[in-house]
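Hi Y.,

Following your request, here is the sequence exactly as I used it, all 316 residues.
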Amino acid sequence: ILPFKESNKRLVHSSYTGNLNDIKEITRRLQQLSLKYWPFEDYYMAEDRGLPYDLYRNLLLYSSVNELGLNPEKFQEFETTRSGVTIDQAVIIGDVFELDFYETNSVDAPLAGVAFAITLNRNFTRNGISYQLPMDLIHQYGQSAARKLVSVLRTRPEFSTVPILVGLYSLNKDDQNLPGNFISQAYFEAHTGQFEEINDSWVIYPSSQATNTNSEVAVEFNLFSRAISDFLQSEVVGVVGKGRLIEGQLDQLSVEVILTAKTYLEIQGIAQFVANQLVQFEQFNVNIVVDIKHHQSTVAVVELKRNQSSPSIIIL
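Below is the corresponding structure, written out as tokens. Let me know if you'd prefer a different format.
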């Protein structure tokens, strides 16, 4: 990472995207997608440095308000999933996130590549009634907006020849405690790029969706949860997980263990027990972070990193 510089778009990201789960997931997953083109060992990374602020704000407007706008014309009508019902004033493009890559950490290093995430809205409310745009429409509109973004950037000297990766991120979700997900990406070396589908999903453990998506992980999580509850039989212990799956395979797991701790040794004991139980997830070779809480306050963190067999424990 280049010496950190505060993004001049951070307040807009916070306001327009809002959900911290999404804000973290967008940049974190975009970094992963970028590795194919700009490996971290060969490039320095920064955020929101290439796109001028005025251009960025113009991109988020209706195209009828500003010709550079990636959103549709203000009163353009779109079919919804309700038969025969259309809506207008649809802000489909929510935000644009940017990661910049450089070959050196020099202050005047030229841009070597750039990755963008375009967030897509399909849920809208009119007069207290919720409407959804069809997912295939969101795919098509997002891809069209991405190509327009690349065309606009190619007219600017700093972006005229650099490779550009664009990922489309759906803000749609069934559970507001979960992030959305990337649905497709395209790599542009010039003006054209071929979109390919991304099969990402987030699930809550335990849940029927988790079982249907990957039953093997769901079974192991249930055993893990039961073991922790049995460890403190005199307490009611809550165990909830959030997992990201890529092509149906677990890629990342975050777990909250919520209890009422009575002694410091009790906290040490549960943390050590959790660390021992994480061994059963080794077969999945994923990053796992367990946040142990006394009510809403974190008292310990246990982490098992990918390709490691020994978890780390931090007692707070």
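The domain at 10-198 is CATH 3.10.570.10 (sex pheromone staph- cam373 precursor fold).

Thanks again,
Q.
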